[in-house]
Each structure stands twice: as structure tokens, then as C-alpha cells.
UniProtKB/TrEMBL annotation:
Gene name tied to this protein: Enox2
Domain RRM: 113-192
Pfam families (UniProt xref): RRM_1
Species the sequence originates in: Fregetta grallaria (White-bellied storm-petrel)
InterPro entries, sorted: ENOX (IPR038876), ENOX_RRM (IPR034140), Nucleotide-bd_a/b_plait_sf (IPR012677), RBD_domain_sf (IPR035979), RRM_dom (IPR000504)
Family note: Belongs to the ENOX family.
The name this protein goes by in its record: ENOX2 protein
Length: 352
């Protein structure tokens, strides 16, 4: 099945095995946690203890498989994942002993999509390797050695993890027990130049995207550039001269005049035009002085208004404090309750 043969139903396990192979039949029955029975209903192993739930080296399969209405007992977190028998068209994979330590693997290379597979049967063909490993995902290429190993490249990185799940499984071609038809798979990460190249390309692309995102972010927060100042010409000079006489457009015009002078537009031919524009700018000084005086007058009036308002507030405060002091005198004080006296004292301190 597509997820590494974990979703096998009861029927597919029992019916997929040839009846001429009692050992495989016993293993499958035992994986279901049942006492192995022959077709006639006789126990194949008279000393099988169902309470143990497993024979030596063969773990029970997960009872939550489709077709089994059994609620599994809670699994402690430190227990290894239970692996099952996997049936393919031309071969069968038997799980490793769960009590053995997990197979050692090398450090995962960056962007790894290629695995090394060792321990293949001598008679294992490329077709059989494909049959076993295409369950882990789309296979891009298989490079098989004359020895009993090969390299398999997958389409995606996560498929490598599925392939590593098969490390330690014993493989048997058909129902043969010939040494050339059996082997113990060893699956490990492989260093491949194609994987590294693709990973580096991907990293560079991510770096480019990050730079682009940062640039957009900086652009968003950068203040807008001022509009470009037009180049000097006789026509533009007459337009600016008119704007200098208009109070509402004076600020824009004076900035243009300043830029032209700094650019070096003043020469013998244009000097008179510039002199008249400077003269227009000078005539605005009287207006600006008058505006400044008006603002200062407004400021003085505002200060006087503030002083009057403040003195009125202070007079009211003093009157309230005077009320508290009068209430604190003997002839009035004796008639208040203890709580009222306390409140009056607190209010008096706050007001002062």
C-alpha cells in the first residue's frame, strides 16, 4: 500500500500468503495476536501462549488496522513503533526484532532525496527494488550495483524518511528460502551531488525572496522623495517669477530659485532675471515680519487668557479649602461622625 504497507487488512494478510508456507502463515497469525491455526482449525504451535502476544523476535501488529474491531491498550511513549509484515507482488518483507537497537544512520546531508540500500538479495532485480520502494513515494532513479546494493533517488525529501522505515527488514523473494533470494535491508542517507545542487539552488532562491521582501519593507517605510526641480529656461523663469509674487505659491517658488542658483544657472545672460527674482523674494520679508508680530500678539493674548483662567481656578480652590477649615473648628466638628471627620480631613489635605 502507499504508506509503506501499514494499512493492511486482516484478509490481505491471511489470504496473501500461500498455504504451502506454514511458517509465514504462523508469523502472520501471531502478528494478529492470535494462536496460529491451520486451515482445519488445529493449532500449529501447541505451546503458543496468547498472553505473551508475540513469538521471539516477532512483534504483534497494530490492532487498530481496518477490519479489526479491537481497542488497543495505551502504548508507553518509550516503546518503539511496532512494524508489520509487508507483502509485495514478488516478495515479502519481515520486520526486525523490536528489542534490537534501531539501525544506525549517517548524518542527514542537506536536501537529501537519495538513499543507499544494502543487503539486497543476489537475485533481486531493479523491478523488485522498484516494487518495494515505490510505496515510499515517486522514484526518480535507481542506480543498481553488481554487488547487493543500490542508490534510489526520490522526488521529495520526506519520502526518504519513509524509505528509512524499511531499514532492518528481512526480504524474501516469493516463498523461496534460498540464500540468493533473501537478505536484510540496510537503508541509509546517501550523499548525492544532485541533491546538494538542488538544495543550494533552493537556499539561494529563498535568500533572494528574503532580500526582495526586506527591500519592499524598507521602501514602504522610506519617506517619499521630493518632486524633481525643473531645469532652468526663460519660460520656467517667468513662471517662477510670477509664483514668487503669490503668497500661496511662494514657498514652492523660492525652493526652485535656490536649486537653480546652487546648480550654477546664474551667468551673464541670466543675471538680470535672477536679480529680479531675488528682489521679489526680498519684498516678502515685510509680510513675514508682520505675520511674526501677529503670531506673537496672539501668543501674549493666549498667555493672559491662561493666567486669568488659572487665577479663577485657584480662587475656587482657596474657597473650598476655607470651607474645610471652617468645618474643622470645634463648634461644627463635634457634630460630624468619625467617618465623616476622616473624609473631611483627607479632602482637605488633597485640596491643599
Amino acid at each position: 500500500s502507499a504508506d509503506g504497507g501499514r494499512n493492511l487488512s486482516l484478509d490481505s494478510i491471511l489470504m496473501g500468503l500461500p498455504m504451502s508456507d506454514p511458517a509465514a502463515w504462523t508469523t502472520a497469525m501471531n502478528n494478529l495476536g492470535m494462536a496460529p491455526m491451520g486451515m482445519t482449525g488445529q493449532p500449529l504451535l501447541p505451546d503458543f501462549d496468547p498472553a505473551l502476544g508475540m513469538m521471539t523476535g516477532i512483534p504483534p501488529i497494530n490492532p487498530m488496522m481496518p477490519g479489526l474491531g479491537i481497542v488497543p491498550p495505551p502504548i508507553p511513549p518509550d516503546m518503539p513503533a511496532v512494524k508489520e509484515i509487508i507483502h509485495c507482488k514478488s516478495c515479502t518483507l519481515f520486520p526486525p526484532n523490536p528489542h534490537l537497537p534501531p539501525p544506525a544512520t549517517r548524518e542527514r546531508p542537506p536536501g537529501c532525496k537519495t538513499v543507499f540500500v544494502g543487503g539486497l538479495p543476489e537475485n533481486g532485480t531493479e523491478q523488485i527494488i522498484m516494487e518495494v520502494f515505490e510505496q515510499c513515494g515517486e522514484v526518480i532513479a535507481i542506480r543498481k550495483s553488481k554487488k547487493n546494493f543500490c542508490h534510489i533517488r526520490f522526488a521529495e525529501e520526506f519520502m526518504v524518511d519513509k524509505a528509512l522505515y524499511l531499514s532492518g527488514y528481512r526480504i524474501r523473494l516469493g516463498s523461496s528460502t534460498d540464500k540468493k533470494d533473501t537478505g536484510r535491508l540496510h537503508v541509509d542517507f546517501a550523499q548525492a551531488r544532485d541533491d546538494l545542487y538542488e538544495w543550494e539552488c533552493k537556499q539561494r532562491m529563498l535568500a533572494r525572496e528574503e532580500r526582495h521582501r526586506r527591500r519592499l519593507e524598507e521602501e514602504r517605510f522610506r519617506p517619499p522623495s521630493p518632486p524633481p526641480v525643473v531645469h532652468y529656461s526663460d519660460h520656467e523663469c517667468s513662471v517662477v517669477a510670477e509664483k514668487l509674487k503669490d503668497d500661496t505659491k511662494f514657498l514652492e517658488a523660492i525652493q526652485t530659485l535656490l536649486t537653480w542658483i546652487e546648480r550654477g544657472e546664474v551667468n551673464r545672460r541670466t543675471a538680470n532675471n535672477f536679480y529680479s527674482m531675488i528682489q521679489s523674494a526680498n519684498s516678502h520679508i515685510r509680510r513675514l515680519v508682520n505675520e511674526k508680530a501677529a503670531h506673537e500678539k496672539e501668543m501674549e493674548e493666549a498667555k493672559e487668557k491662561f493666567k486669568l483662567a488659572l487665577s479663577g481656578i485657584l480662587v475656587q480652590f482657596e474657597q473650598i479649602v476655607a470651607v474645610y477649615h471652617s468645618a474643622s473648628k470645634q463648634k461644627a466638628w463635634d457634630h460630624f461622625t468619625k467617618a465623616q471627620r476622616k473624609n473631611i480631613s483627607v479632602w482637605c489635605k488633597q485640596a491643599e
